[in-house]
Amino acid sequence: MTSQLALLGGPKAIRQDANGMFDWPVITKEDEDAVLEVLRTGRMSGIDVTQKFEKEFAEWLGAKYALAHNNGTAAIHGALFALGVGRGDEIVCPSMTYWASALPVYSLGGTVVFADIDPTTLCLDPKDLERKITDRTKVIVVVHYSGYPADMGSIMSIAREHGLKVLEDCSHAHGSAYKGKKVGTFGDAAAFSLMSAKSLATGEGGIMTTDDRTLFERAVAFGHYERHSSELTVEDLRAGAGLPWGGYKYRMHQLTSAVARVQLRHYPERMHEIDAAMNRFWDLLEGTRGLRPHRPPKDSGLTMGGWYFPLGLYFSQELGGLSISRFCEAARAEGVSACSPGCNLPLHTHPVFKTLDIYHDGKPTRIASLPTGVDVRERMGALPISESINNKVFKVPWFKHNREEVIEEYAGAFRKISENFNELLPGDKKEETPSGSWSASNVARS
After folding, report:
1. Mean pLDDT by 10 residues, the chain (446 residues)
2. Which domains, and CATH codes, for the chain?
3. Smallest Cα–Cα separation from 348: which of 299, 384, 311?
4. Annotated catalytic sites, by residue?
5. SS3 316
């Protein structure tokens, strides 16, 4: 009897041409004309187009101030400085995130304490966060992972109780909402990556937002050429006007700013289309054995924005113990080419956060700024969810258009595997190779 599964000789589930379903970003003549205008007027190194983008982004988000950077890492760096992180200070951050959420703290003389994540949201676990706070903690870094809004109600309550600042890393969550309000508007500051794979893609860029004028000006003073004199009004900051305090040149390139303005103009419509498509996909898979959507419950007031880096949650025990690697192998055979296990690898397991002496302090940089005898490095097993999550999540297609017939085929591929999982068990070696990566930018496309 011929198997139903393509991996075992059956017909592929995916037969249609995707026809642009996964192409991103959408670049049109409007983007090209905006870039050409900057080139032809010779304003590549100016700030006027960038300032227009900042104003428009702040209005879209619902923040008072926005400061565009050359990338999202720089935006986080500037935000941490603005929030007062310095020598000997600690930030608390989830370990399961892109390195830029935490690593810039080193160059400010501080260090990071990692907290675990919630296994359903993949975001910072408030209970573990509270356990990681010490008298050296200065800032909580919240990551809205894979577009899923973190539990901002609990996190902000903890921050207020302990007198801590909150930085939201919204690099996966452009337009995501927590109880009807956009993420990036809860904490003291927020940072967004705008690189070309993100749901709001501008090329290579980033932006920091805040409602606090002093925080905005501190970020300007830290690394914004041409602005650290003209835009400083806080007296303590004006004393150092004229030169960037951090010695950095972090302004956004105006070609990026030109693209950013066009992309932002169309983003609400495109985001709505992505949201409808991704929800259609998961609605079609409702009740499928072994699979759950990584999305908030309906009627929760939480939304996923542009669904950057979309994932599914995998429950091996419902499929006879079928390994996630075998499941994804079967999905790729059906034509879901980007389906693979894992997400980000937990940062606390990397040598940069364990053993490396980056600045020649004579001890690992992770503990170099701390009092003698204080060691915040985590042992294996300390963050059990972060350490095991890569065998419990898988990448799914990132649909950019809500085309029912195409989405039905892809959903059908996953249903087909779930319904015929028994056929895969005999060939399942259950030798789980390390999955995930240090970067989540290899976004699932098809």
Report:
1. 86 92 96 98 94 98 98 98 98 98 98 98 98 98 98 98 98 97 98 97 96 97 88 91 94 97 98 98 98 96 97 98 96 95 96 98 98 96 97 97 97 98 93 74 54
2. 29-261 (3.40.640.10)
3. 384
4. 198
5. helix
